[in-house]
Design a protein that fits this description.
Layout (H helix, E strand, L loop, with lengths): L1 H13 L2 H12 L1 H13 L4 H24 L5 H30 L5 H30 L2 H20 L14 H14 L1 H15 L8 H8 L3 H26 L3 H24 L3 H29 L5 H13 L2 H15 L1 H21 L14
Helix pairs in contact: 1-2, 1-6, 1-7, 2-5, 2-15, 3-5, 3-8, 3-14, 4-5, 4-7, 5-14, 6-11, 6-13, 8-9, 9-14, 9-16, 10-11, 11-13, 12-13, 12-16, 15-16
Length: 381
């Protein structure tokens, strides 16, 4: 809901594709700057307590946006600052949550299904929240979306406090932080399956998926459906992702299916971006968004599962922080590129460029598919 409200607020304040890109840049940029250091911290602290802290800070930024919009004091500069703060907090929250999944599950044999189910619940919210947000903006304005998002963090924090998991002892790392960070980078560089997964993830997530920056613009100026249409476009993507999660969960025990979901998912995602970019039909755009959601989920969940099966637990936080940096590292520049291209050459051209980049990543994965083989124990073959 906050993603919908924030994008619509920026469009309302500026009516500029460029500023949509700038706000997205601000939200992403802290992650590549501090993400690798965050991974070292994730490996040395109690992950549940860390996540409680990050969720509390993100709750406060949601309430701050609610207060600013309610008092009509909001300016795009404030949105940029709060987006950057959320990005900084997410640098710790994202790898912390990814690594915490293993602690909750307790066994590697259940890990693929756990990751798929985690994705399913996340995208179930994506299927409902944006549609509700679009309707809520029409009925009561943007403030309600920010306020309800802030309230939702209370349930998240309460759930974390209620979990019965062994407390992870905090270990000292002091002046060896750079050594610990280098260990994670060395593993990612020398383990070739992990290396290529990260390279393609950086290309696809950092550049191709940034077409989403322009979805508010498409909803308002191309498809002429307003905030409600914008919400339904994001909801369609979330619904498709739920279907993708079901498919991945049903076959995630088979290593061969992980590779299939990985490659087919990325091809489907890229093709759907091209269709979305040229579509002038709301129905066709909704279908493209559903296919995109299914493809994204299939690709991302398979990538996440493979990485978690490859890595030893003592390196997990660092490797998942590299995953976060790969996922978001190029996104600030991708957002600016999409915003600039959309403003100067049209939203359709910007979107088609994203599709071509995604297809390039898919073909790279296809050429390296033999490296991505897993044996039944989860190790690289």
């Amino acid at each position: 809901m906050q993603i919908v409200a924030q994008g619509w607020l920026v469009l309302k304040l500026t009516n500029s594709p460029w500023m949509l890109g700038v706000v997205s840049f601000a939200g992403y940029m802290p992650i590549p700057l501090v993400g690798l250091f965050a991974g070292v911290i994730v490996d040395h602290v109690d992950r549940r307590r860390l996540i409680i802290g990050t969720q509390t800070l993100m709750m406060l930024t949601a309430f701050a946006l609610a207060a600013l919009t309610y008092t009509q004091l909001v300016r795009v500069e404030y949105v940029i600052v709060l987006a950057a703060l959320n990005g900084f907090v997410s640098s710790f929250d994202m790898p912390g949550r990814q690594a915490f999944i293993v602690e909750m599950v307790g066994g590697r044999e259940d890990l693929p299904n756990a990751i798929a189910l985690n994705s399913m619940t996340f995208n179930g919210a994506r299927a409902i929240g944006p549609a509700v947000a679009g309707l809520l903006i029409v009925v009561s304005g943007i403030t309600g979306c920010f306020f309800l998002n802030g309230l939702s963090y209370l349930a998240v924090i309460a759930s974390l406090l209620a979990m019965d998991v062994p407390r992870r002892e905090r270990t000292r790392f002091g002046n060896v932080m750079l050594v610990r960070m280098r260990e994670g980078l060395s593993y990612a560089w020398h383990h070739k399956p992990t290396f290529y997964l990260f390279v393609v993830l950086a290309i696809s997530a950092g550049l191709s998926m940034q077409y989403s920056v322009l979805i508010p613009y498409f909803a308002a100026h191309v498809l002429h459906r307003g905030a409600q249409g914008y919400g339904f476009l994001l909801a369609a993507q979330g619904a498709g992702a739920v279907l993708g999660a079901v498919a991945v969960a049903s076959k995630s025990h088979d290593p061969r299916h992980l590779r299939l979901h990985l490659i087919v998912g990325l091809f489907a995602m890229s093709a759907s971006i091209a269709v979305f970019g040229i579509s002038r039909s709301f129905a066709l755009s909704m279908i493209a968004q559903m296919v995109n959601g299914a493809g994204q989920l299939s690709y991302q969940a398979s990538t996440n599962t493979m990485l978690q099966l490859f890595v030893a637990d003592e390196l997990r936080g660092r490797v998942m922080s590299i995953y976060t940096v790969s996922f978001i590292g190029l996104a600030p520049f991708g957002s600016l590129e999409v915003g600039y291209t959309g403003a100067h050459f049209g939203a359709a051209v910007a979107t088609l460029i994203c599709a071509v980049i995604g297809l390039g990543g898919a073909f790279l994965l296809l050429s390296k598919h033999r490296l991505l083989r897993l044996d039944q124990s989860g190790a690289s073959a």
